[in-house]
From TrEMBL:
Pirin N-terminal domain boundaries: 61-134
Residue ranges of domain Pirin C-terminal in the record: 196-298
Name the UniProt record assigns to this protein: Pirin family protein
Domain of life per record: Bacteria
Signal peptide: none
Assigned protein family: Belongs to the pirin family.
PANTHER family for the chain: PIRIN, PIRIN-RELATED
Species assigned in the record: Maribacter sedimenticola
Gene3D superfamilies named among the record's database cross-references: Jelly Rolls (2.60.120.10)
Matches recorded under InterPro entries: Pirin, Pirin_C_dom, Pirin_N_dom, RmlC-like_jellyroll, RmlC_Cupin_sf
């Protein structure tokens, strides 16, 4: 094992590019989906300081990330607490949260916004959210963009003695995840991609099965007291690069422990990144930037770059073909 301190964003291994954990204890809402508290003294548009336990990110009145482009990879957004309002250049939109997962393939190019509406005006609006970037191999870099929702009620959850495992991608024993986006590296089972959100009860343990040969596995311990793994003590806010070729038992000590596990067979291709673009060469990056300047990846069909949905709206997904699913 290699144990390391978690930073912002979290360190990842191929085929993952990026993972960030957002925990914001937002105050009551102001009725317009922003915070009722004062925004004075915040560097609006670039507020990552965590003042009073929450951030506005790139939002100026509502926290979140207004319209921005992506190309060449996928975003997987897990909203454990709170809500996220999605809008994109395909015409897709949605409000998801309280355990839902959104899987978006950027492929040849898409713009999207991710805003965090503060729906409750009578109580705090805690947000707990992961965003994971999963790379695409060269053959899939320019596939058509794709928008998919994995609703909390439909995601398999392994309820074990002493632990629960939310199976977002891959399989855990007999629990099989919902299908990922069709062009994803995770769509081929040979690539052994898994994303598990694990809750271990105090003084209980969970066993991670061995993976396929060559698979890389990283475990992120983001909340709890301590873990015990193979005679090693691991403190919270640490990650573990584990040998996935062997089964591993993890025990939570004294308090409940919360983990995120990312694993997969590496793509093993060159990676060139510039902001929201991930390609295989500098030339391909330059082409991506040129195409975005010329086409805006289809333009922005919404009135505002920080588009949000009506406060009364529940969880829903609107797909590019106009089909709407209400939850």
């Amino acid at each position: 094992m290699k144990i390391f301190q978690l930073s912002f964003p979290w360190q990842t291994q191929d085929p993952f590019l990026f993972c960030v954990y957002h925990l914001d204890h937002y105050p009551k809402g102001n009725g317009a989906l922003g915070p009722a508290d004062s925004l004075e003294g915040r560097p609006l548009g670039n507020d990552f300081i965590g003042k009073d336990g929450w951030r506005m990110y790139h939002g100026t009145s509502i926290p979140g990330f207004p319209a921005h482009p992506h190309r060449g990879f996928e975003t997987i957004t897990i909203a454990n607490k709170g809500f996220c309002d999605h809008s994109d250049s395909l015409g897709a939109a949605g409000r998801f949260g309280e355990g839902d997962v959104q899987w978006m393939t950027a492929g040849r190019g898409v713009q999207h916004s991710e805003m965090f509406p503060l729906l409750h005006t009578d109580r705090e609006n805690t947000l707990e959210l992961f965003q994971i970037w999963l790379n695409l191999p060269q053959k899939s870099k320019l596939v058509p963009p794709h928008f998919k929702m994995l609703w909390h009620e439909e995601i398999p959850i392994a309820k074990l003695q002493g632990a629960t495992i939310k199976v977002i991608a891959g399989n855990y024993d007999d629990y099989k995840a919902l299908p990922p986006a069709p062009d994803s590296w995770a769509a081929d089972l040979d690539n052994d991609v898994a994303i598990w959100n694990i809750h271990i009860h105090a003084n209980q343990s969970v066993k991670l099965p061995k993976a396929k040969h060559g698979t890389l596995r990283t475990i992120y311990f983001y909340e709890g007291n301590t873990l015990r793994i193979m005679d090693e003590t691991v403190m919270p806010n640490h990650g573990i690069e584990a040998d996935a070729s062997k089964p591993m038992t993890i025990k939570g000590i004294a308090k409940d422990a919360y983990l995120l596990v990312l694993q997969g067979r590496p793509i093993n291709e060159p990676v060139e990144k510039y902001g929201p673009f991930v390609m295989n060469s500098q030339k391909e990056l330059e082409q991506a930037m040129d195409e975005f300047r010329l086409t805006q990846f289809g333009g922005w069909p919404w009135r505002y770059p920080d588009h949000v949905h009506d406060a009364e709206r529940g969880r829903f997904a609107q797909y590019p073909d106009g089909n709407i699913i209400e939850k």
